[in-house]
Amino acid sequence: MRDKIQCRFCGRYLGWVNGRHLATHGLTEEEYLGLYPGARFYTDKMLQGRSSRMKERHKDPVWSERMRKLSSETMAETNRNRDLYPAWVENQSRACSESLRKTATNMWKDPVIRAKLIKLSSERMKERWRTDPSSMRGYYDGAFRSRLEESFAELLTDLSLTYTYEKHSFSYEYDGRTRSYIPDFYVEELRTFYEVKPKRFVEGAQLKSKLEAVRRAGYKIEVVTDELLKDMAYGSLG
What we know:
The chain is α+β, with helices and mostly antiparallel strands. Among the domains are: 5-35, no CATH class; 113-233, no CATH class. The chain has nine helices and eight strands. It has helices at residues 19-23, 29-35, 44-58, 61-80, 85-109, 111-131, 147-158, 205-216, 226-233, and strands at residues 5-6, 13-14, 163-165, 170-174, 177-181, 185-187, 192-197, 220-225. Strand 4 and strand 5 (177-181) form a beta hairpin. The protein starts with a strand and ends in a 5-residue tail after the last helix.
C-alpha cells in the first residue's frame, strides 16, 4: 500500500483522498480535517511528483511572468479597496460562521458522523482526565461555575455545536414561593436546554420543579451528570 493513502473515515486505500470521495461521506475537505486533524490527502510519491512539475513550470519564463502579473494585480486590487477591506472581512467572517453552523447541524443529524464526532471528543476528554485526574474536582476558577460545566462546554465545542450559557430564565413554584431558574446551557442546533450537575444532586424535589417549569414552557431539557460525562470520555455510550 505504499502508493496508496487511507481514508480515515471509511478505511479504504485510494490513489488520493479527493473531494469526490469525501462527498460520498457527506464531507468537505475542511470537515474531514476537522474530524481528523493532520490527515493526509496525497501519498509521498504524488507530492514528489507535484513538486517536480512545479519546479519545471518555474523554469518557463512565460508561466512565471503570468504568475507574477496575477499576484501584482491581486495586490493592487486589495490596495484600491483598502477602506472597504474591514467590512469585507466582517461579511466574509459572518458568512463563514453561518456556513459552519449549517454544516455542523447537518453533520450532527447524520448518525454515523455523529457517532464519530462523539468518539473523537470522548478520546480527547479521556486523555485530559488521564493526564490530569483532578480536573473534575477541587478548586476551580474559570469562565463557568464548575469544572464539570467547563468539560461539558468543551464537549459541545468539540462537536461544533453552538451554545449559550445561563441566558434564559424561567419561573417555578417551590416551597410555597415563586422562584427564578436559569438552566446552564442552551444548544441551538438541538433546541434543548442542559442542566449540568453531579449525580448526587439530581434527585431533589427542587430540581424536578425547575425541569417541569422549562418543559411547561414548551422546551426540552436534559440533565448531564458527572458520571455521564465520564462514561462518554471512556467510550461507554451504549
